[in-house]
Amino acid sequence: MKRKRPAALRGGEEAAAAALKRGPWTPEEDEVLARFVAREGCDRWRTLPRRAGLLRCGKSCRLRWMNYLRPDIKRCPIADDEEDLILRLHRLLGNRWSLIAGRLPGRTDNEIKNYWNSHLSKKLIAQGIDPRTHKPLTAAADHSNAAAAVAATSYKKAVPAKPPRTASSPAAGIECSDDRARPADGGGDFAAMVSAADAEGFEGGFGDQFCAEDAVHGGFDMGSASAMVGDDDFSSFLDSLINDEQLGDLFVVEGNDHEHGNGEIGHGDVMESKQ
DNA sequence: AATCGTAGCAACCGCCGTACA
DNA sequence: TTGTACGGCGGTTGCTACGAT
User: Fold this and answer.
1) Is the C-beta of residue A84 closer than 7 Å to nucleic acid chain C?
2) Is the separation of the CB atoms in A205 and A219 below 8 Å?
């Protein structure tokens, strides 16, 4: 593991301006933050640490709350159905971790991102699938693809050897029962998610790996599609894609894909398939 | 028992988009 | 229209536990 500069010497917007605390949060800090947010809300993160009496920057407080202290956070390992959903969504959205997380109640973008980088990408590579493009990593795909995939996922071993460690936080997260109960308002509002996606432009449409090719091939753009069909329809469309058992077929890469010549999916075809 | 390498994940950084004066 | 503050996102870093030697 490379270590560049000590954290204290790295540039930071807020932390550099004052002697603010960095590094792992203590249970005491967690308690102060959780109590303050419960009492005052979390509308102004910038000034929150000062008001709460914390020697942290606002960003750090927000991150801690969003990724760890929020009461609807699940602390249990990601289940098979969640993993499957992550795979589908990543295939559809690329590294839009926040959008993917919005589809998985109780899960954070950071958690999903970490899970992808440490588990799923390796799993896909072990299966001969490029985790960035979801294309096969065949011999024909040559070593450059594989190397790129490996580099992109910072994988070190083909098969993860250890079960995921559990978090050691005092924070009260969602207790996962066997039936994996989920909160009703835990971020599963897909319409809101798509609206958010639309609000942010959704430029590039699917994942970043598609951007260049989409531009070159005049391919599908999520933002355009959303504008064309409206948020509700678009939401339903995307939802149906996620749940559609044939999604895999739509996105399965044919080695002899003729339209793009590189196995890329034809997004336009996907849109047509809705009608 | 000691050392080393790796996995997992919490936390940080820099950038971007939006809201508002 | 412009500048500023802020929230949010994705990528990256670095700490720590743990397995291998």
Assistant:
1) no
2) yes
Nucleotides of C under 7 A from a protein CB: 5-20
Range of the domain at A228: 190-274
Mean pLDDT on A96-109: 88
Residues A57 and A123 in one domain: no
* pTM over cut 0.90: no
Are A91 and A40 part of one and the same domain?
Answer: no
A99 CB neighbours strand C below 7 A: yes
| Assigned token pair, A138 | 């065949």
Protein contacts on strand B: list nucleotides below 7 Å from a Cβ.
6-15, 17-18
Q: Does pLDDT of A113 surpass 80? A: yes
Phi-psi category of residue A68: left, alpha or beta, with phi > 0 → left and psi -120 to 50 → alpha = alpha
C-alpha angle with apex A238: A138 to A196, nearest 5 degrees?
Answer: 110
- Banded pLDDT at A73 (limits 50, 70, 90): confident
Verify if strand B has an atom below 7 Å from the CB of A126.
Answer: no
**How distant is C1' of B6 from CA of A115, in Å?**
16
| A200 and A258 belong to one structural domain | yes
Are residue A35 and residue A99 in the same domain, yes or no? no
